[in-house]
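Limitations
The structure tokens in this dataset are predictions for the assembled complex, not deposited experimental models. Users should treat interface geometry with appropriate caution, especially where small molecules or nucleic acid strands are included. An illustrative entry is reproduced here so readers can see what is and is not provided.
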Amino acid sequence: MRLHLRQLSRVAVFAIVVLWVGGVNASAEVAAEEVSLRIDRFHALLLEVMQSGHAFDGRVVRLAPVVRELFDVPTISRISLGRTWKTLDDGSQHAFSMLLEELIVATYADRFESFSGQSFHRQSTDFARRGWVVKTELQKSDGERVTLDYYFRGEKVFNVVADGVSDLSLRRADYNSVIKIEGYEQLLSHIRENIADRRAGDADD
Amino acid sequence: MQTTRTLAILGVMLMSGCASLEGPEYAVYDPYESVNRPIDKASDWVDRKALVPVARGYQKVTPRWFRAGVGNFFSNLREIDSALNGLLQGKPRSAGTDLARVLINSTVGIGGLLDVAGVNGLVHQEEDLGQTLAVAGITRTRYVYLPFIGPSSNRDVPTAMINAALPRLILGSVYTWWVGCLDVINARAEVLSATDERDASALDPYAFTREAYYQRRKFLIFDGDPPMDDFFDEFDDEE
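Predicted assembly:
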């Protein structure tokens, strides 16, 4: 009887381990599929926006909700500002995140303004130590290829790496340099100017 | 006096290039910022006033196939350096690919004007001496902004020199001043869209370019596949 119980407990432990590992694998597969689909949908939207012929504001309206849902703007904001982030109160942090979200949307609306045969190709979805990485490629009409890797923390993207150059690292280096030389208020002013320039550039075209 | 001082500082910077540095590998390290920034500013002024207008005009009056041909021609002359460095890094396949490209493009590709090898799947491997030094262990390097050439580092200055000298060495007297001008203008025209995008995005172009330079070099050192975890680990300080 004692032997029987011992065997049963071994079977139970084995079953738990199998179920746990199976569950982890299953959830990992679901997550991989989910993050891949999110990027596919985002790329489909970029193509749609480019082909739509909408003016800048029209493209912004289409892109804004998707950018908000896909990108972890509060994390991007926090990392971009470095030590300055901790010196801001909750209201200022929120205001900065809103401004950065506006800039990200304006940047996509500006970069993906017209269609000339571009296409996106998903290469792989890999799990790094702390999140998913969806590797994709943008093929331009002249055949030039740019790798675009989307780094996820949880369900949202916090970094996009284009041909090995991290958007978040550039932003952090750029913003911290401006803060160091000109101050935080000037950084806000530059970001607002950048958004206005992108809108004005579209009007000039 | 100012020129002598600048040259002296540049000399010290280059000579100390191989000195061991501390800190994270491949990270931005710019102890010469006070020298680099004015050089960057002056180079940028000349670039905007002289080179960019010429490059835009060149882009407007020449067809794409012409610019591609010129780019292929000069790239072919420099590719032997890539083959050699592939070998030095212990990558015979990479070296073989570049060597095959040079042979095919120099003959079938009419002296390098056509990238016949590329069309047939032999892709340029983009190796250079700076990457070889990084593979050999020099993964930390000081940022240097070279006048009228652009971003570089102690480790990568020889690469910039080799790139500038190779066409002249190979072509000899054929490399006249106007051939040199064509090389420079065509190369500038090829990166116009990249620098336009930088100008549209960067709030401090100096810091932006410096960061992009280090990341791009790391990307090339790892043959286009840097460790994914690094893009997570890099931001640990901000947690």
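Some entries come with short summary sentences. For this one: Chain B has a mean pLDDT of 90.
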